[in-house]
Design goal:
With about 140 residues, this protein is of the alpha+beta class. The protein is built from 3 helices and 5 strands; from the N terminus they run αβββαββα. The structure holds guanosine-5'-monophosphate (5GP) and zinc ion. Guanosine-5'-monophosphate (5GP) binds next to β2.
Length: about 140
């Protein structure tokens, strides 16, 4: 992908502060962090979203991300971390090369995910079971 900034980072055409690299994945510091130490783990091959990433690569991404989260906790005095992947523009994805965020978290870091909560109805199309049945009808693992 010629115009992809993360492919350019992989090829060394754009600079990045790297944390880890192997044949499948690259991890580097996010240029505009939520907290200090915020990192990104990306597949070396270009995948726009999560769904086309092979299992060995996504498994490696998760493993590397958790290890970076633990290392950040131990060295930067954090209490935990979030792993986050946005798949699609509507989900907040800006860079269209799939990436797993590692966001180190502290109990008093004053950052809050903007969660909201919708309610299921007891019956009808919005019931939890109805929704689950729709998902199950297309779920192939
Ligand atoms: P998204 O919103 O797509 O899930 O996240 C994209 C992330 O990539 C953002 O957190 C942003 O700060 C980071 N980012 C965008 N451009 C660059 C860059 O050129 N270098 C680095 N290191 N991070 C970038
Ligand atoms: Zn790319």
């Amino acid at each position: 992908m010629e115009d992809c900034i993360f492919c350019k980072i992989i090829k060394g055409e754009l600079p990045a502060v790297k944390l880890y690299e192997d044949d499948l994945v690259l991890a580097f510091m996010d240029i505009s962090p939520i907290n200090y130490g915020h990192a990104l783990v990306i597949p070396k091959d270009h995948h726009t979203g999560a769904t086309s990433i092979p299992e060995d690569v996504s498994g490696r991404m998760f493993k590397v991300a958790t290890k970076i989260g633990v290392a950040a906790k131990r060295t930067l005095d954090y209490d935990g971390f979030n792993l986050h992947l946005s798949d699609g523009t509507c989900a907040g994805q800006v860079v269209m090369h799939a990436h797993l965020h590692v966001v180190p978290r502290g109990v008093e870091d004053n950052f809050h995910w903007n969660w909201r909560h919708v309610e299921y109805s007891d019956n009808g199309e919005e019931s939890m079971c109805e929704i689950a049945e729709k998902i199950l009808s297309k779920l192939k693992i």
